[in-house]
What does this fold into?
Amino acid sequence: MPETPVAPQRSADSGPVSGVGESSPGWDAESPAPATAPTAIAKAWLGDVVQRGTQALEARSADPLRDAKRRVRDAERSVKRRERRERKRFSAAGRRKRIRLMIVGGSVVALALFVLIGVFTPIMSVRNIEVTGTTTLDPVAVTEQLSKLQGEPLALVSKGDVFAVLEEFPLIERFGIELIPPSTMIVRIQERTPVISLKGDGGFTLYDAAGVEVGTAAERPTGVPLGSEQVSDVTTPAFSEAARIVRDLPDDPRNRIVSVAAKGAQDVRFTLDSGVEVFWGNRERSQAKAAVLVKMLASLQDRGVSYIDVSSSEAPVFR
It folds into this structure.
């Protein structure tokens, strides 16, 4: 059999084998392979495109007309954005205003309906009448007189209407009314208080502090002193001052006074049930004068005092 050919071996000291591993002139084994012709052409074309694009952008940015148009467009867009925001804001404000108007209008309509129901229907008319505060007057008689207002619309009943009904009761000094829906009227009465009695035929005529006759009595009531001749005219300042002083006094010493006299508004005098004469003066500091008088009567009851002057509450005099 023929032998298989064997490639010749190169020793470590021998040079390179001809045709194998030899470097070509101008080419280093560690350098990259040279670019092919198509690759170089593509790179050159791409660089040219980039350069022309850059030049075009620079030219466009350097164009003042184009730049002005761009700024105008930006400004128009900004204005439109602001207009949209303002439209939204005013639309919300308009909705809130409409809601408020609807609420107010609804309230007015409801109030008008309530008034109409109260005025023109019997649902809100006077049916129940209550009277309070009477002492001398008969509350049943007063209620019967007020029954003239039954059936009247509760909302239309005034103090003038009640006054016209109660005018025939001179004992009423003042009154107040309270209207409670749907049909109740409460009348609170303050009666006149007699403060001075004047001797008349067959008894005593009683007067309040305004000089209004409030009744008669066979005997002088306690706390209603007898007026002297000086205060017999109820239209004089002397009567007015004396009556107001008596009205404003506490029960003690008022219940001890049996008669009152006055030469004028500054000269009011009392006579007590013990016979002591009291010079009061006028209405000023009446509460302080009353307190001083009560203390003096308590401390001087064993000394036989017949006269006390409290016209000056800070410097009373007695004898």
Remarks:
- Residues 1-33 have pLDDT under 50 and may be disordered.
- Helices lie at 37-61, 64-120, 139-146, 159-166, 237-248, 251-254, 286-299.
